[in-house]
Each structure stands twice: as C-alpha cells, then as structure tokens.
Amino acid sequence: MMIFAEFFAGVGLVREGLASDGWSCAWANDIAQDKRETYAANFGSGDFVLDDIWNIAKQPEQIPDNVFLYTASFPCTDLSVAGDRAGLAGEESGTLRALLHILAQKKQSHTQPGVVLLENVKGFLTSHKGKDIRNTVKTLNALGYTVDIIELDAVAFTPQSRPRVFVIAVDNTLAIQVMRIKDKRNILDTWWSHFHQSPQLRSAKLRDLIQTNPDLNWGLFDIPTPEKTLLRLHNIVEDIPEDSPLWWGSEKQQYLFNQMSTGHQAIIREKIHEPGDFYGTVYRRMRNGQSMAELRSDGIAGCLRTPRGGSSKQILVRAGQGNWKARLMTPREYARLQGVRDNFWMPENDNKGFFAMGDAVCVPVIQYLSRHVLKPTYEVWQHTQQTYNKQRTA
Predict the structure, then answer these.
(1) pLDDT per residue as tens digits for the range 96-148
(2) Which of 292, 325, 339, 347 lies in disulfide reach of 287, CB 3.0 to 4.6 Å?
(3) Which reaction is catalysed here (predicted)?
(4) Which residues lie below 8 Å from residue 347, measured CB to CB, with a gap of 6+?
(5) Rounded distance between C-alpha atoms, residue 383 and residue 35, angstroms
(6) Which of 345, 307, 308, 343 is nearest to 328 (CA)?
C-alpha cells in the first residue's frame, strides 16, 4: 500500500491530490485549529495531530514507521517576495528544520521514508543568495537522499498563476533505479543534456543553482512537461445573482476604477461593449507609495494569497453587454482555482475559506507529481522489495 505522512497539512489538499491516485494517509500534522476543522470535515480527524512541529520533533516515534513518503508544504512567509525574506532563519519557514530533525531521528532508527516531497514558493531557490536551498539539499544528501528540484505552475492545470518549487528527495539505493544521477567524476556526463530537455520544469535559475553546487548529490526524473489547460476564469466563476450584495455598489466600483492605470481603464471600457462576458482579476498593490488596482485580462487569476489585508484579496471583474461589475472572488472560486472538487467542505466564514485555499497547494499539480514521479517510484521500490523477499525465502 502507498502510505504517506503529511506535514504542514493545512486543509489537506496534498492529501486530496494523492488520495485520488491511490495513496493512503497514515498521519498528518498542522498547528492551525481552523485548518484542522476543515481537514477533519473532509477526511476525518483520526490521522490528524494538532501540534507545533517542533513538539513532534521531540517525539518522532508517534509518526508511523511504515511510511514511504513524507510531504511538507512548509510555510512560505519568510521565503516569499511578499515577506521579509528572512529565509529559513525566519520563525515560520524555519520550521523546515524541525522536519529535517525528524528525518535524522528516523534514519537512526532505520525507519526513514523512501521519498520526501517539499513544496514552497520560487523564492526558496534564491533565499539568502541560494544558501537556504543549498543547505537543505546538503542536509538531505547527508541523510542518504539524492535530490531533484522541479518547478511547476498551477496555470498548466487551472486558470491561476501559481509557480511553485518541489524538492524531491529519494533514498540513494532507490534513486539509482528511478533517476538520472549526476556523475561527479565525469565532466562530460550526458546528464546535462537531459536537464535541458524540460526548461519549463527546470528554469535557467535552477540550472545555475545546480551548476554552482556540483558537490551535491543531484538526480533527475525523466518526466513530461504538462500540457497547458484550456480552462479560463469563465469556467470557474460562480453564478452570482445580479442583485446579490456580493456585487459592489457604484461608489465602491468607481473607486476601484479610479485606482487603475489609464491602460487598464481602457481595457474595461473596451470590454463593456463586447457581446459576451469578459472576466478579469484585480489586485491592489502599492506602487511608488500609491495604492493601485492592477487588472489581469488574460482569463487567468493571479496567485491566490491568504487574506492578511484587504489588498491580498483577489477581486473579480465582469464586463460586457453594456456594463461592468466588480466583487471579491468567493471562497468556492478560490477552491476551484486550486483544482478542488465542489463537494469539498469549506468553512462558512469567508475569511477562513480564503485562508484555507490561499495557503494551500494546487490539487492537479500534486496529481501530476504522483502520476509521473511518486507512484512510479513507489512501484519500483515495491518490486525491489518483492524480489528481495523472494530471494530470502528461496
């Protein structure tokens, strides 16, 4: 059975993606009570431990030993460009160190997982001029893992721009069977030719990171580049009645319009006269000390965020057939942008719903990684174990 443990579980969107591909969650952990409530409503509370991961690190024996995969979508607060860039020295993103401590203890008891999957923002690659990602990979290497890094954007799967970095660490003995391993002794190794085959999965920035750290144990998964979805905003919007109070009044709507640049105002004026409905999204941002409303008009939503302030909430604009309207996106629309099924239980409080989805992973991205990386790796491991057991009993 494909068994995994979910660290920094949030509301369980990693589980949502893995479960659809046959994985079974044996244990999950998060520190947020609100997220636990949503998690429990959708998956039950039997596997969920509500606690600080540093406390978990003091008692790692509570994590089941028969776990093949650890997943960790650790906090991005200190790695994001929207944060203070404290990196792994920060209080929140630094909780990754607790997970690494748990892995070290599991290694001592010979119960470490075969694969570890870390997820975070692309700022993880540049935090502290690359030192944070280097130290993370170096620590994973010391724990007996070979590492690949893959960059995936949710926009390939849903109408949301959400670039993320996935660090995939595979036990060395298994890695040689499922990955292309970089040969440190051969400078003419063909490993690099395969690296260049998927620039969408591994950018020039990532290539430079690997090239400048040749002493680390790197491996590559030979996986396809995902085909981009044709879904757009009009595919995920809820049918909100025209007289709903969710739609903004004329004064508030005009204020938003006045915050836009002349170019974005021109787009609104143009779209008003179209026969069908145009949908765009707006974020408020500070530009040169002034609050600006920035319109995205390509049918793709900007990256969802947690609602720590009014500017972090994404605004939906609809224009066409002679008029235009604006409102905040709904939590259910947030969920759809994360690829979440409509019968996934959501909190009644909108802000809790925004937090649940804004601080989560895109489900189809996890499904993609499971289909092309995690599940095939498990199947190779399972076959190896079965062959070994047959030889022992022969």
Answers:
(1) 999 999 999 999 999 999 999 999 999 889 888 888 899 999 999 999 999 99
(2) 292
(3) a 2'-deoxycytidine in DNA + S-adenosyl-L-methionine = a 5-methyl-2'-deoxycytidine in DNA + S-adenosyl-L-homocysteine + H(+)
(4) 34, 37, 38, 331, 353, 356
(5) 37
(6) 307
- β-strands 115-121, 163-171: how paired? antiparallel
What are 203-223's pLDDT values in tens digits? 988 888 888 898 999 999 999
Q: Is 303 a catalytic residue?
A: no
38-46 average pLDDT score: 96
Structure tokens at 336: 């759809």
Q: How many CA atoms lie within 13 A of 198 on its CB side?
A: 18
Could you tell me the two tokens for 192? 């690099």
User: Are residue 176 and residue 263 in the same domain, yes or no?
Assistant: no
User: What is d(CA 66, CA 25) in angstroms, rounded to the nearest whole number?
Assistant: 11
| Burial of 59 from C-beta contacts in 10 A (0-12 / 13-18 / 19+) | exposed
Note whether 45 and 186 are same-domain residues. yes
For residues 282 and 268, give the distance between their C-alpha atoms in angstroms, rounded to a whole number.
Answer: 12
Residue 320 belongs to domain spanning: 239-329
The residue annotated as part of the active site, out of 25, 76, 303, 362, is: 76
Distances (CA, A) of 6 to 47, 73, 117, 136: 10, 9, 10, 19
Contacts of 226 (CB under 8 A, 6+ apart): 152, 156, 157, 368
